[in-house]
Write a structure and sequence with these properties.
Blueprint: H1 2-12, H2 14-22, H3 26-40, H4 46-56, H5 58-67, H6 71-77, E1 86-88, E2 93-94, E3 99-101, E4 106-108, E5 112-113, E6 118-120, E7 124-126, E8 134-135, E9 140-141, E10 146-148, E11 152-153, E12 158-159, E13 164-165, E14 173-176, E15 181-185, E16 188-189
Parallel strand pairs: 1-4, 2-5, 3-6, 4-7, 5-8, 6-9, 7-10, 8-11, 9-12, 10-13, 12-14
Antiparallel strand pairs: 14-15, 15-16
Length: 190
């Protein structure tokens, strides 16, 4: 019965497929789909996986609506709701391949976030005195971390749970703590 309801719901998602196909951000959405496909071990075409993710993941819907923003996305959100406690600032430049781990109460307000970004719940990426962070490629930010101000997080960095980052972090680092300290750089303990 549950499968029947899920398949029926997918029928109502057909306007999303049209929006996806016509989107100027289709290539970036494809990167998101491929990342979720790999991480969740999903099988099928981009369209079938998109339907599955839109059916089962409110946080993926939030990313999809961010990518396809406009009046049509707002209308579709009326019956296929996004995660209301996952906010992405409209001016944030967000690279492809975004993956979330239950981003409840997560706010992304950065100048730029690179490719293959992972974010968990209770994360704040935000401004201090109007200045916002820049985050590189292949960055993961874990539960409860705070990244604020006019700082740069390099490529291939992990921001540990509960960390408070207010200073630049170079490439290839793992940071933890409040205030955040580098504990690993280029694979070696510091």
């Amino acid at each position: 019965m549950r499968r029947l309801i899920s398949n029926l719901y997918k029928f109502f998602l057909i306007p999303h497929i049209i929006l996806y196909k016509l989107s100027s951000n289709k290539a970036i959405i494809d990167k998101d789909i491929n990342r979720w496909k790999m991480e969740k071990s999903l099988k099928g075409s981009s369209v079938s996986i998109l339907l599955t993710l839109l059916t089962n993941s409110t946080d993926f819907r939030s990313i999809f609506y961010f990518r396809t923003r406009g009046i049509v996305a707002h209308i579709l959100n009326l019956y296929c709701r996004k995660e209301k406690y996952f906010k992405i600032d409209i001016t944030t430049k967000l690279g492809g391949g975004v993956l979330t781990g239950h981003p409840y109460s997560t706010i992304l307000n950065a100048d730029h976030i690179g490719e293959n970004f992972f974010v968990n719940h209770l994360v704040t990426v935000g401004a201090v005195k109007g200045k916002r962070p820049t985050i590189g490629d292949n960055v993961s930010i874990y539960t409860g971390a705070i990244v604020i101000g006019d700082i740069t997080i390099g490529n291939n960095c992990d921001i540990g749970a509960g960390s408070v980052v207010v200073k630049d972090i170079p490439d290839n680092c793992v940071v933890v703590g409040n205030p955040a300290k580098i504990v690993k750089r280029d694979g070696k303990r510091v």
